[in-house]
Amino acid sequence: MFAHSAFRVRRACWLSVIGILLVLGGCAEEPSTLERVQAEGVLRVITRNSPATYFQDRNGETGFEYELVKRFADDLGLELKIETADNLDELFASLNKPNGPVLAAAGLVESDGRQQHARFSLPYLEVTPQVIYRNGQQRPTRPDDLLGKRILVLKGSSHAEQLAALKLQLPELAYEESAAVEVVDLLRMVDEGQIDLTLVDSNELAMNQVYFSNVRVAFDLGDAQNLAWATAPGEDRSLLDEMNAFIERAHKNGSLQRLKDRYYGHVDVLGYVGAYTFAKHLQQRLPRYEKYFREAAQANQVDWRLLAAMGYQESLWQPTATSKTGVRGLMMLTLRTAQAMGVSDRLNPKQSIEGGAKYIVYVKDQLPESIQEPDRTWFALASYNIGGGHLEDARKLTEAEGLDPNKWLDVQKILPRLAQKQWYSKTRYGYARGGEPVHFVRNIRRYYDILTWVTQPQLEGSQLAESNQHLPGIDKRQPNEQTPPL
Ligand code: GLU
User: Fold this and answer.
1) 160/452 Cα distance (integer angstroms)
2) Is the CB of residue 130 less than 8 Å from the CB of residue 201?
3) I need a surface site. Which of 5, 246, 266, 473 has the fewest CB within 10 A?
4) If pLDDT is split at 50, 70 and 90, which confidence band does 470 have?
C-alpha cells in the first residue's frame, strides 16, 4: 500500500517533469510574435506608397508613417523593412499571409469593417473623412448632394465602407471604387474635372492640397476617426502591446506631435485657403523666378528652396510689392540693405533675389558660432526680419530664463517679450515687435517644407509647373540640412 502510493507519488513527479518539459518545448516551438520578430532581427512593415505615408526621395526613405515606424523599430533594436501594397485589399491580404509583414502602418482608419482583417493599435492621429469637390462647381453640403455625381474612392478604403453604409439610406447613391489609384490620383482627378467628387481623410488632403489649387473641401462626412497601426488578428498580442507602449511614449514625450507638425503643421499655418493659394502661386508665379532663385542659391551656397520660401513670405513672389515702411521688391529689401548688397533696382526680380541671397548669407555669418544647424538657419531668418541687435537681446533674456540661447525653440518663446515694457526696458536695443520674427520663421519653414516635397529629383532643373504634373515624386532636403530635429 505504502509502496504503491510512493510509486504513485514518483510517477506523478515524473509526469509533472514531463509536463514542464512539454510546456517548455512548446514555448521553444512556438515563440510569440514579438520573439519571432526579435529572433529575425527585422521588423517587416507593409504600407502604401504615397506622400502621407511612405515615399523615396534622393536621400532614401521618408514619410510620416515611415518616420514613426522607423523610431519604433529603432526602439526595439530591429532593422526596418518596408513593403508596399498596390491597394488596400492587397495590404490586408499581405498582413494576414503566413510569413508576411507583421505590421501595417499605412494611414489606416480603424473602421468596423476591418476588424476581421486587422487588430488595431492605439490611435496616433485623428482625421476627418472629407468630401472633396472642384472649385467653381456647386459646393455639396450634405449627403443628399452626393446623388447624381461621379464619385470615385479607393477600393477597400474606409471611405468605400462609409459610402456602402450611406447607400443603405440613400439607395440611389452611385459611386465607384478603384484599386488602381492612390489618393493623389483621386485629388488630381477632381482638380482636373475627371470626376466630380471623392472622399479622403483630412491628413491626406493636408499633405496634398498644396499640389492641387482647384481642390476644395465640400463637407465632413461623419465624425472624426482614428488612424492606427495594425497587426493580423491571427497573431498574439505581444507585438501589439509593444506598439501600444511605443505610441503611448510618443504621445507623452512629444515626438509624435513634432512629427505631426512637420508633416501637417503647414495647414495650421496656411489654413486651407492659404494652402490652395500657395498651390496656385506655385504653378503660376514661381516658374517665372525659379531660375533666379537657383542661380542666386548656387552663387551663395544656400538652398534655392529656402530663398524661394523667403520670397513667398516677403511678397508672394510679386516683384513690384511695396510696403508702407519703404521695403520693396520680391525679397522686400530696405533701401539700405539693397545698396549694401549692390542692388541698384529693387523692383528687378533677379536683382532682388540676388540681394536677398547675399543678405541672408551675410546675416548668418554674423551669428555666434555656438548656434548650430538647423537652428542657425532659423536664427538667420529671424535676424533678417528683426535685426541682429534685437535677436541678441532675446537670446540674453532666454539665457536668463535658464533656457538655451542657441536653440530656436527656446528663443522663439522669449522673442515676443521684446514688445513688453517690463522686458524690453532691461534690454540693450529696447522695444521690438518680437512676435513678428516668430511668424516669419514659422511661415518660411512651412513654405520651405512644401517646396522640398514638390521638388522632384528626377526633374531637377525643370520648372515646377511641369513637375506638378508628375506627382507624387517628391524630394526632401539634404540630411542635416535645415531639418527641424524631432
Ligand atoms: N485612410 C484611408 C483608409 O483607411 C485611406 C487613405 C484615404 O483615402 O484617405 O482607408
Assistant:
1) 32
2) yes
3) 5
4) very low
Does the beta carbon of 177 lie inside 6 Å of ligand 1? Answer: no
Q: 157 CB under 6 A from ligand 1?
A: yes
Query: Which residue lies with its CA nearest to atom 1 of ligand 1?
Result: 108
Q: Structure pTM?
A: 0.68
Grid coordinates representing 478? 539634404
Whether 185 lines ligand 1, by a CB cut-off of 6 Å, is no
**Highest mean pLDDT (candidates 18-27, 206-215, 229-238, 317-326):** 229-238
CA 352–ligand 1 middle distance (angstroms): 44
Q: Compute CA distances 427 → 66, 371, 403, whole Å.
A: 45, 21, 17
DSSP state of 478: P
Contact 448, 282 (CB under 8 A): no
Average pLDDT, the chain: 86
Closest approach atom of ligand 1 to CA 160: 10
Whether the CB of 108 sits within 6 Å of ligand 1: yes
464 closest CA partner among 321, 289, 320: 289
Active site residues per annotation: 314
Q: How far is the CA of 158 from the centre of ligand 1 (A)?
A: 6
How many CB atoms neighbour CB 76 within 10 A? 18
Long-range CB contact pairs, 93-98, < 8 A, 24+: 94/46, 95/46, 95/230, 95/231, 95/232, 96/232, 96/233, 96/234
Distance 201 CA to ligand 1 centre (A): 6
Handedness of CA 24, 26, 30, 33 (dihedral sign): negative
Q: Which residues contact 79 (CB under 8 A, 6 or more apart)?
A: 41, 42, 43, 73
The one-character DSSP state at 371 is P
Whether 158 lines ligand 1, by a CB cut-off of 6 Å, is yes
Question: Per-residue pLDDT tens for 309-360?
Answer: 999 999 999 999 988 778 899 999 999 999 999 999 999 999 999 999 999 9
| Alpha-carbon distances, residue 23 vs 15, 28, 32 (angstroms) | 12, 9, 14
In sequence order, the 6+-apart residues with CB closer than 8 A to the CB of 199 are 129, 130, 131, 132, 151, 153, 159, 162, 163, 221
Grid cell, residue 334, equals 530696405
Q: Which long-range contacts (CB under 8 A, 24 or more apart) does 161-169 make?
A: 161/111, 161/112, 161/113, 161/114, 162/129, 162/199, 162/221, 162/222, 163/199, 166/221, 169/143
Distance of CA 107 from the midpoint of ligand 1 (Å): 6
Locate the ligand 1 atom nearest the alpha carbon of residue 107 and give its number.
1
Question: How does pLDDT run across 420-436, given as a tens digit for each residue?
Answer: 888 998 899 888 889 99
Note the residue count of the chain: 486
Backbone angles phi, psi at 251, to 5 degrees: -65, -50
DSSP string covering 433-460: -THHHHHHHHHHHHHHHHHHHH--GGGT
Q: What is the average per-residue pLDDT within 79-89?
A: 96
